[in-house]
Design goal:
single chain; about 180 residues; three-stranded mixed β-sheet; 3 strands; about 40% helix; globular
Length: about 180
């Protein structure tokens, strides 16, 4: 059994209470994504988001484009960006909508999105914990923060082994190579 018992973000709780792209400085998001070679592409408000696995306002991935609307939750943007960062080169080369990956990679994605939240103005780690819980991410210890602080050693090691973060829990600003 996966340590986090993470379930899909389709199990939403309070959509309106999470921070969305229109609530923050879009330039800081775009700048962060560009460090990984990702292009933030805005989609008109009344349009479906191409490349969105879950649909609705959830971020989409096609090749090196992260597609969003102004109402896309910031946690969704970071989650999909972290899928891009954590996937191997073969999957990244053919990326269209479904990031794939296994449970260990999914846990690493969640851990990395929490770390990257500190690099977005008006967001940060504590807000990421709150938004993950509000959205319906579920963890064995009951909250994203409890998982991150006390039950995510496997995700941390996964990221360290692939040189995506360093021992100080700082991003290495590189993509997975293997």
């Amino acid at each position: 059994m996966n340590k986090t018992d993470l379930q899909s973000s389709q199990q939403t709780v309070h959509h309106g209470s999470v921070l969305r792209l229109h609530d923050i400085d879009t330039i800081s998001v775009s700048t962060l994504l560009s460090r990984y070679g990702l292009i933030l592409t805005m989609v008109p408000a009344d349009s479906e988001i191409p490349g969105s696995y879950w649909g609705d306002e959830e971020a989409g991935l096609i090749a090196d484009e992260l597609l969003v609307r102004a109402d896309t939750p910031v946690h969704s943007i970071l989650h999909e960006a972290c899928h891009y960062i954590c996937m191997d080169e073969d999957r990244r080369d053919g990326l269209d909508t479904n990031a794939g990956g296994d449970y260990d990679e999914e846990n690493a994605v969640c851990y990395l999105q929490i770390l990257l939240a500190d690099h977005i103005k008006q967001f940060g780690r504590l807000r990421m914990f709150e938004d993950m819980d509000r959205w319906g991410y579920t963890f064995r210890l009951g909250s994203a923060q409890a998982w991150f602080e006390r039950d995510a050693e496997d995700a941390l090691n996964w990221l360290l082994q692939r040189n995506l973060i360093n021992q100080q829990l700082k991003p290495c600003w590189s993509l997975r190579k293997d």
